[in-house]
């Protein structure tokens, strides 16, 4: 397996630019690669150019297809399924790789499935212009995935071209769909890149430095093949020089700074005018609200003064009512106290009267008890004497009866004796 497969789609009328694109790949000085040139309905001049390139480099394989739909994306899928590189890098047939391109992509793909780099255009004045786009940031990725402009301005882009992307071959083969015909109205490269970004397993990296130069063909539509060739030759000399990076960065940084500043000033002017107008509106609104507040405060002060006077009057009325109630209550308390004192005196007299009556009743009851006790004692003595007489009489009769042998006569006498004994003991 090769370290990398480099896929270069090409079309008719690119015989002049294709050798420079291939040369920038060969200038990476990494031998363990394969270069896959995919022809999409090319003309004979392109075929002849590819044959010369193959004769000089055995790593080049040419796939000559008839013209396919759109840019022949379906041909790329078939070629990649025959590729033998661990990673896949892309090159356009009229773009240039910068030194270190392949190594940067290979390093990034050690821990990623798909990599995108800063898109750099070369304008018609020969200046390199960079555009910021970071797939690792949701601020860029989320609108990109739904085909929306991120609206960050001229310093940013909405994606990156063919020569600025790379991916692992095994990651490509995991996709539900690889290169396919792009729907009308959508950019072919972005349509493919989004297929990677929408996979939950896909690890994405962004390289925020130049690794390729893109020469937009629409801007050069009226150029001759010689003009295209001369432009690429000049830039190949720049790339081959030891200070190529300085040359490119000297173009990129001032231009990027100018675009950022222009956008800031452009946005700042309307925002500043809008802010000033808003301040004026707020000041006018504040003046109106202040006047309304002052009027309202005066109304409230008048209302408070009126309510204060009414409250003072009411307080005085309540104080007078309280005083009248207090005087009436005091008179009523005095009257009740007098009545209570009189009732107390009457109650004390009645208590004393009742006490005297109780004493008299107690004395009379005591005398009556004494009298009853005396009478009871006399009756008891008389009864005891009578009982003694009866006992003597009974004894006499008993003795007489005991001498009789008749049980019928003695029985009643015994009962009488028993009764007398119980009477005496009771």
Describe this entry's structure for a reader:
By secondary structure, the chain is of the alpha/beta class. The chain contains ten helices and eleven strands. It has helices at residues 18-26, 44-56, 73-80, 101-108, 138-145, 169-174, 188-197, 225-240, 244-402, 407-425; strands spanning 2-10, 33-40, 60-65, 85-90, 96-97, 114-117, 119-122, 128-131, 165-168, 204-207, 212-213. It has a seven-stranded mixed β-sheet with strand order 3-2-1-4-9-6-10, with helices on both faces. It has a two-stranded antiparallel ribbon with strand order 5-11. Strand 1, helix 1 and strand 2 form a beta-alpha-beta unit. Helix 9 (244-402) crosses helix 10. The model has no long low-confidence stretch (mean pLDDT 86).
Number of strands: 11
Cross-sheet strand order for the largest sheet: 3-2-1-4-9-6-10
Structural class: alpha/beta
Distance between the termini: 144 Å
Kindly report the average pLDDT value: 86
Along the chain, the helix and strand elements come as EHEHEHEEHEEEHEHHEEHHH
Strand content: 5-15%
Rg of Cα set: 65 Å
Morphology: elongated
The parts where pLDDT drops under 50 for at least 5 residues are none
Put simply, the count of helices is: 10
Name the descriptors.
alpha/beta; 426 residues; 7-stranded mixed β-sheet; single chain
Please give a quick description of this structure:
With 426 residues, this protein is of the alpha/beta class. 60% of the residues lie in helices and 12% in strands.
Secondary-structure map with pairings?
Blueprint: E1 2-10, H1 18-26, E2 33-40, H2 44-56, E3 60-65, H3 73-80, E4 85-90, E5 96-97, H4 101-108, E6 114-117, E7 119-122, E8 128-131, H5 138-145, E9 165-168, H6 169-174, H7 188-197, E10 204-207, E11 212-213, H8 225-240, H9 244-402, H10 407-425
Parallel strand pairs: 1-2, 1-4, 2-3, 6-10
Antiparallel strand pairs: 4-9, 5-11, 6-9, 7-8
